[in-house]
Amino acid sequence: EIQRTLGKGGFGVVYLVCVRGSGQFCAVKTFRDELLANPDAREAFKREALVWVSMEEHPFILTARWVDEFSGRLFVQMDYVKPDAAGRVSLHDHLTTATCPLDLNQTLEWAIQFCMGMAHAREHGVECHRDIKPANVLIDRNGTLKIADFGLATAAEKAFRKAETVPEAFSSDHEQN
Question: Is 131 an active-site residue?
Answer without folding.
Answer: yes
